[in-house]
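Record format v2
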Amino acid sequence: MNYSFSFKDECELEYTLNDLGDWAVLAFRLGYDSFKYGEKENRCITLASVPTREIFTAIVAMGAIVADASSFKGNGMLSWSQFRELQVDQAVYFTDRTRIIRGRLGGFNEEYQARTILDARSATHFVTEGNFYNYKIRFDSPKSIGNSQEDDHLVLEFFQQGLDLKVDKNWLRTIHPSISLNIVKHNFICAISGVGLVFKSKTIPISRFLSLTESLGPGSGKVLLKSEKNSTIDFNPKLAILSTGSFERLIREYARSDLVIVLEHHEYDEAVASVARSLRLAGEDSAVNRAFTEKVPNGVRLISKDMRRAV
Amino acid sequence: MARFHHSEAQHIHCVRVSDPLHDIFMQACFNIVRLISGNESDQINIRVKTSGLFYRVSSYVNDDFGSETFVKYVENELEELASLASQFEAAGNNARTIAKTISLMIDRGTNYKRAAILNSKVSSELGSSMTLVERGHKWRTLDIPSKSFSDKKWATMFFDSRDFKPLDRVLLPMSPNLLSKKLQKELIFCAGAKFLVIFLYSREKLKLPEIPLFIASFESADSALIPTPRITFENLYAESNTSDVMDDEEIELNIDSYTPRSHRVLRLLLITNEEVLLQLCDDVWCDDQGHLSHMPSVELVEGMRLLLRSEYQLEKPEAYLDRSEAWRTPLRSIVNLGISCDLMSRNIEHRSGISVNSRMIRSWIDGSVLGPEDKSVFFQLVEELKLRDFLDMSVSSSEIQSWWDDLERARFAQTMKGVKNRSEALKEAERVLIEDVEESSSDGSLFEYSEILVIERAWIDFGQLESLGVSNRRNVRVFS
């Protein structure tokens, strides 16, 4: 992959991944490889200890997002059967001729075999299986965060020009996040608030690129952001990033996900070392581990293993 | 990002400051701590008092010991120390030595450690780009009313400072292992300082926080979690000796209360006679008469009762309702025989002054509400049943108490709550990671169901941490 982008901080200084250091390259690679990990019977579990977690975690999440986008094959889109099952009153945006308009879902009309949508003018639209894809149903407002359509183009441009990746625009419309992130939300959002991704004289805030969401509602985002101790989850993300010293409370909820556990050095104690010893004995080295065994980046300690995945 | 760049080996430069009076002072403190061992409260108190005095005097660099703050603090502490020492023959002479040396240090009018910080070669080389840690720990340093180094244009840092940015150079007047956990985290573990200059008296021991071994993919790759710092030394001597200098051996005061390995916890006694230890930073939810509010453990005081239930102790209301027929059936019978809930409510109020809503009484009969929320209401209700001969007068108060306890547990058992011992939680985490299980079921927590009494706040050592209970903040109710 070619990296033609850089990070920009609050002081408007720019750094490429290599400028930041090997730790940043490792973080990106960790997120990317962990998401890409495709063994059905095994999963990739990484425990990393770093001096400070927020920006490291953001780059891990970024790597995972890039992996998600680059491996998109139409999965995760809203299907007709899923659309039929959505709750009544769910807010949706849909394309009517050339306009995107907002409406609320009504019930299923048996006579026409169609799901109804009521728009703001109380007009009823009938969505059938035959014309379902023409409506381009989405759940996020095209007018949120400035002009979201422009944001979408910017994200796709970033993939194209910053990473030399052509990403299907339908990836932006997948309905559920495939990455979850447990972290102290306030600290994380503050830490990344001034950070942007720069490519070809354009900038996109990293938070926008990560498409963070705290809602499980359809189409709400790509990375589900949860607090450091909240384990309640009713779906299996492909990758769970547990960036918290209390990771042991969350492990059970993510028994089928690939895991990246990020600790700060002061959180690494004998009890965590015991978990690491068990990992060492029970799994094979993962690709990330093998890639960074020879030269461990400054400040980062990492153990990454392939382990059996819960059925 | 700077923290990653700082993650190469930290440079620590230790400046040893010679002060013969401090040597004697330190020896006397050490003698008391060494000679008065044991876990009786008086023995612990004198050790705590001595070590506190030692740490605060040794880290004091704010003036030449002549300020009102320092003199007043010392007077109070020495008075208390003398009083404690009078109980122990071995401590009396040493306490007098401590008082004498501190008095001489004050009269001398020079704080050698402060002078070293202001005038040493390294300070002048580094100039104003330094940050001084003026108070590195809440209890091990003296509370100072105002900054004393502002004229030097140095930045200063305290144990409770909020914003930490990575720094190039930091000055410490105490050993790093004595800093607060937060400062240890910022300055040592999280690469917050590239260069540490530490000023210690000649017999103070330079000690770093314990750096754990990072467990890597294979054993030969295991290494220290952070690079071992590069340490250099410099000696500064006093201009004159006022008394004989003891030998040069470094001394470390090893006090239970203030060693890095000791922790302040709440000691709780379970109804099963087992002990639970909660860290003061743990969170608990307090339910006082039905109101939930978040409370850190530090606010729990001795004498409070807590009710604790394991995560898997779930009970459906029906199970409790069956058990509670002992008092519910007589209540139902009264009403069936024509005595109204209104009349019962009035009788209870007339007899005891406690008001009970008649609609609530009806709800307890049919089980739509499990029972009274208030203990005194429940007891008065049962009293009413006894007075009307619907309950045997011989029913003992302990049996009624057991009905009440059962009701409280039942109410508490309706939602998912629980406490897990931290080591058990980690073991379970290991099991989930290693074994082919989607969900692990608990074999039964250490705290199946317990009533807990807050006994005391205590200091414990590292070995006792194995039994530390980690509270899930939704788990604990307080009944005062």
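The longest helix of chain A spans residues 54-70.
The CA atoms of residues 28 and 69 of chain A lie 14 Å apart.
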